[in-house]
Structure formats: C-alpha cells, structure tokens
Design a protein that fits this description.
The chain is α/β, with parallel strands linked by helices. It is 50% helix and 22% strand. The protein is built from four helices and five strands. The protein has a five-stranded mixed beta sheet, sandwiched between helices.
C-alpha cells in the first residue's frame, strides 16, 4: 500500500489491483478527511483492471476531494486497457488526467503556486 504525503499539500496514491486498490483508496479518503486542504494525485501504474466497486470508490474520493473540499484530484499513468474503461463509461470527462506521476506533481505544484500569488 502506498499512500503518502508527497508534500504538505499533495497526497500521492499509488494503486495496485484489488484487494489493495480498495484499501489504498480507503486510506486516501481517511487522510483527505483529516486534511481537507490536500490535492490528490492517483497513479494507476500498477492497475490492470477496474470493476464497478473500484469506480464507485474513485467517484466517492472525487466527491470528497473535488466537490466537498474544492481541491484537485488528478489521475495519472493509466494504461490502455483501463483508459478504455474510462472512455466507455464516460468517466474520462469526469476526472482530470496526467500522463505520468512527475507531470501530475508538476501540474499540482504549479496550480498551488499560482493560487498563492
């Protein structure tokens, strides 16, 4: 399980296939509940498939981060198979994406710095 504070403002979640997927998203949700100012970057590098409960958990995390806390949730490193599922379900329009972790972190840091100006 890899859910760690990358910085004071950014939570990095590196997902794996189930059952770790569900545990990691629960841990991320707990951290976001305790610190509502966190932006969240979720890496799908270790994910090869998603099921409906995985999608529901992602949507719950999105609701907490993006809607309730008004912070940014960014998904990255999504492989072709999983990306196809996002396209098929239309969730590619619901979530924000970055190609890889480094680009996602750069995007979140840049946004944070522009908020502080």
């Amino acid at each position: 399980m890899t859910v760690e504070n990358w910085s004071d403002d950014i939570l990095l979640v590196e997902l794996q296939d189930d059952p770790a997927f569900t545990d990691d998203l629960s841990a991320a949700s707990d951290k976001v509940s305790k610190n509502p100012s966190l932006d969240v970057l979720v890496s799908f590098a270790g994910v090869n498939y998603l099921n409906s409960s995985n999608l529901a958990a992602l949507l719950r995390l999105r609701k907490e981060v993006a809607i309730n806390n008004e912070r940014r949730l960014l998904l990255c490193s999504v492989n072709t198979h999983v990306w196809g599922l996002f396209l098929t379900t239309g969730l590619n329009k619901t979530f924000d994406f970055a190609d890889e972790v480094s680009l996602g972190l750069a995007s979140l840091n840049l946004e944070r710095s522009s908020e502080q100006d």
